[in-house]
Amino acid sequence: MSYSDFEPVIGLEIHAQLLTKSKLFCSCPTQFGLGDNDNTCPVCTAMPGALPVLNKQAVDFSMKTGLALNCKIRETSVFARKQYFYPDLPKGYQISQYDKPLCEEGFVEFMLNGEKKRVRIERAHMEEDAGKSIHNGDHTLINLNRAGVPLLEIVSGPDMRSAQEAAEYARTVRQILLYLEVCDGNLEEGSLRCDCNVSVRRKGTEKFGTRTEIKNINSFRFIEKAIEYEIHRQIDCILSGEKIVLETRLYDPDKNRTFTMRSKEEAHDYRYFPEPDLLPLKVEQAWIIESKEALPELPIARATRFTEQYKIPQYDALVLTTEKTLANYFEETAEVSKNPKAASNWVMTELLRELNNAQKDVSNSPISAKHLGELILEIDKGTISGKIAKSVFLEMWKTQKDPVRIINEKGLVQISDNSSIEKMIDDIINTNAGQVEQYRAGKEKLFGFFVGQVMKVSKGQANPELVNELLKTKLKG
Amino acid sequence: MDLSQFKVVEIANAVKSKKISAVEVTQHFLSRIENLDKKINSFISVNQHAITEAKKIDEVVASGKDPGLLAGVPIAVKDLLCTEGLKTTAASKILANFIPPYDASVVANLKQHGAVVIGKTNLDEFAMGSSNETSAFGNVKNPWNLEYVPGGSSGGSAAALAARLSPAAIGTDTGGSIRQPASFCGVYGIKPTYGRVSRYGIIAYASSLDQAGPMAHSTEDCALLLESFAGRCKHDSTTSAEPVPKWSKNLRDDLSGMRIGLPKEYFAAKIDDDTQKIIDQAIKTVEKRGAKTVEVHLPLVKYAVPIYYLIATSEASSNLARYDGIRYGHRANMQEHKVKTIDELYSISRGEGFGTEVKRRIVLGTYALSSGYYDAYYQKACQVRNLLRAQFLKAFESCDILMSPVTLSPAFKIGSRVKSVLEMYMNDIFTTSTNLTGLPGMSVPGGYSANGLPIGVQITARHFDEQSLFNVSFALEKHLVKEARSPHVI
Asked: How far apart are CA B315 and CA B311, in angstroms?
């Protein structure tokens, strides 16, 4: 038996921190920056007698996300207490939805190596975050600023069959959250957290193998690497006759390996029971319908529309729709330039390259979509060549000026009148008699040399098509 | 004029009309506490700022502004309600030095209406008990006979009232904790409909059952006090938006057309003779006032005590998890105990901080919620609770008020039931259903036993029909007890 005889089964639990202004059960702000424990009150520090009151915006964000994940929305969902002792869990229980979550039975679709994949969403439920323990040698400090911040836990079905697919699924969910503007999607800062459940089984068998859960992964690349490692570890175990232990493992990106955090046998009995301090959450049909209608166009739908409306390749459409701001940028550029294909090329190559180099987000691009569209217009009008356009682009990046102004100020307008180009060609023919002779004798490769000379003399401003045309005639003699 | 005998309404009127100052009133009751409470132990702490607060009320009166419904009325608040800047202990060692940074909504409302918190009253630890013997600050004695318990868990509030150490008190009732001590101490006490009164800032025992209510010397006082703090609270999502009527302005002792239900199962219990006699007199009284009595059936009440002890302890086991010694409250001395792990710190802190009864209930509740037992205990209890509620609602189709004893017998001797946990729990036989169903219930003084101990009458009404409760209470107040007695201690 070998690796290829096995098949991995992967399911993901994604915790998305919702971008509400206040916490899930009190009015403390969710944005910190101030000192430790500054954003706390009797409710989120679990003072005696304090009670939770549900944040409506969190419900709204959760419902939107559920709908975007094609989930059914429960008209009556219930909060429960998940009980365990931990110093950064002030009440001794976490308020979470348990057997009656807000969102259930959905799915997401995405493209993987040119193939459409569908992963089921089992549930998406609301819960509160815990605080933070800072271990410091012989003592531990507790910061409760984060305690009570709203999270939506999105649980996939055990539907993924490769590490790559799992990472792509996670990217897709993140994309949707960003499109909905309900989560900032930052894995490194923990506003998006991903736990991966991994097991392997022999190909052709139905029964799932024993799974492990990998926690603490803070990038998509690491999701892929951690799962990849874990799949191989498990297969190695089985091949060497060992048993897989049901356990939670941590991923160490420096060593690229996972290691045991705690076995599930030590797992708690959470003693869930319905939270008596909150009434069951009722969402009326009208609210659900309203939320559904207010959903923005989601990435995969937008990509499909791009291929149809703008006739751009599917790959381009997928890249351009990875982020809402990027897709918006492209659409504006396409509209202004009236040339979607050129818009797509410029955004995908020049713009993304510069943004990447500068570590900038498209929303902070020094070149606006309008300006880029105008630049393409100037090319299409023949005012400048594509080559000059690239230098104008760089100037735009530096100065944030509009392209027409740069073209005028720098005198970059393309030379398109026959007589001035003819004069340049005549001079070149005169000073390069030898090359002209060789060309006329059949060394046609030299044509490029003459083009280059004209461009050099014209400082690149000569209209390349005219140069070609006139050179051909003149060189014939 | 003896201020001690003043009703809430009389004090508020006297303060408003400047016949007496709030400071004088406060002073009067503070010195009574100083002189008499050594014998009774009804207060855990006295508000050191009471005089300053009373002064402020007097200033408001002097300025001509409205000082509020309860101007200058001293209130004894059960030490289960958080009071900003004033120690709040729940009668537990684990919170012995806890000073809340905020007021419970009930307290905030009382203050807004001009009341002065005079002190914090003793109770069974975390309101878990029916005799006030589980307090970490010593048991409270019944002012009618110091060898007897005052009832519980709001025993301190009831005893303080009976001894006239305060003209009004606040209690909480999870399974009878207002009504039973009110009965044992001869005062009025109402547990409002669940959702009537904000639980925000009240140290939770069993969230789905807890409800705070007033205790006082008259129906009108109870009604007025409840008006001041009932209603929707933005900090408690289980409070109701139901409007709060002016009950105190609509009291009627004419009960014509009212049907009083007498639950057959309650009267089949082993009620002692004195209690039976008083109930019979109460029945005659309401009939004389025009009410009709009907027999009703509530066969499921025999399960009320067991389901109460499953649900209450389950919720309690969770509600008390926050007392971990991390952020506030008692923490074990780590060096002395050579504490090495966080789990050790928890278990030693909680082991030292909680008393026996509290531990017993945490263990019971933890067990009832454990995987493998949840369905058989907690969930089953919730199912029966729903059936019980339906049965009560059905009974209210044929009557408007249920009348019964509060307990099987009057107050018992201190120490006499400590060893018999079950006997102690059975004390709650008539009172727990009211909490399990969320209905409003009241204990109204009915008379005295042969050995001079007060005995109350329990009345229960439909959800949010506190007015009917107050009317029946008012009729009993005017027509049942003819003799005015005072406890020996005063």
From this structure: 6
